[in-house]
Amino acid sequence: MNAVRAPRNRIKVLVVDDSALVRQLMTQLLEEDPGIEVVGSAADPYIARDKIKQLNPDVLTLDVEMPRMDGLTFLRNLMRLRPMPVVMVSTLTEHGAQVTLDALSLGAVDFIAKPKLDVARGLTDYAGLLVEKIKQAARARVVAAAPARSGDAPPPVVAYRTTHRLIAIGASTGGTEAIREVLAQMPADAPATVIAQHIPGAFSAPFAERLDRHSRMTVIHVERDQELLPGHAYVAPGGRHLRVYRSGARWHGRLGDDDPVRRHRPSVDALFESVAEHVGSNASAALLTGMGDDGARGLLALRKAGAATLAQDEASSVVWGMPGAAVALGAAQDVVPLSQVAQKLLAGTAHD
User: Catalytic residue among 110, 269, 294, 313, which?
Assistant: First the structure.
């Protein structure tokens, strides 16, 4: 079930967290923004269920670990009975990452990580990001979907050769599931694929592992500079840039700890611009769902370099910020629904 939520004058938020301190802090931080009204809070999913009926919030923040009913069970029921934008609040742990990725597969719009230590200071540091995510969530397209299973992907229909070809993909909000869907449709011997997804460092390795389980390709969480091989997809680690360079007749991926680009590290622009410089017309690239404009200029550089360039369309995007910015710049040769991205990427690498 799909629904597009448009914010009224003030976005009504319900905060759900078992920690009284977190509820108080999040309420205070959110209400400092004149465009947001925290209409209530709840200590567990049962209280939240009743308050949703009473208060009709626009956006829900939900802790991933909740008493009486686990957060995933609550989210699954919510998306089935009353789909609405949900921003998960998770811990920066391996377990927190796995549960959060499960939540995104169930239809949560986005997540924000709360630190394990010094919660009050951590949430204050994240105030701007939290407000931004709430505002984006209020405008997001809510898609309730069951978790994918291995073997669900249709067989590819595009003829191509993998030699001297490379695919680049960038995404942010909604991108963990969008990328999973794209890779699930790729054949085992698809061109080498490099991926920049905005994600914290603690989450990127579990994300790559999840992609690997649902893809015919071998998905690698990049941890060192390495050669890029056909049949492999390379996920940039959270907190580090991934760039492509040429060494002799081969392409390699290189990690960088330089400053964030457009507030992001990994940055889609950083990845795309390196592909434009070193791969050029031998590349195809797709910019998927996400808030902001990271990747739009990089996609334009790729188009100018002769690469095949795609943007995900608005109807299938959770947030049409990044792909919309690319379309506005004239960076995308094609604007397609998510279901057609893999086919178009492979067609862009086809050679007779």
Answer: 294
> Which residues have a Cβ under 8 Å from the Cβ of 235 and sit 6 or more positions away?
195, 197, 204, 207, 208, 211, 219, 220, 221, 222
How far apart are the C-alpha atoms of 352 and 159, rounded to whole Å? 8
Cα gap 68→81, rounded to integer Å: 19
Long-range contact pairs involving 29-32 (C-beta distance under 8 Å, separation at least 24): 29/123, 29/124, 29/127, 29/130, 29/131, 30/130, 30/131, 30/134, 32/127, 32/131
Are the C-beta atoms of 129 and 136 separated by less than 8 Å? no
CB 322 within 8 A of CB 289: yes
Q: Which position among 102, 198, 215, 267 bears the catalytic label?
A: 198
pTM of the model: 0.89
Q: Helices 20-31 & 127-138, crossing angle to 10 degrees?
A: 80
* Tens-place pLDDT, residues 248-300: 889 999 999 999 998 999 999 999 999 999 999 999 999 999 999 999 999 99
**Active-site annotation holder among 90, 172, 267, 284:** 172
Sign of the torsion angle spanned by Cα atoms 93, 94, 99, 101: positive
- CB neighbours of residue 66 within 10 Å: 22
Q: In one letter, which amino acid is 55?
A: L
For residue 113, give the nearest of 5, 24, 238 by alpha carbon. 238
Active site residue 252: no
Length of the chain: 352
Quick one: which of 40, 97, 36 has its CA closest to 65? 97
Both tokens of 6, joined, read 């448009």
**Catalytic-residue membership of 150:** no
198 included as an active-site residue: yes
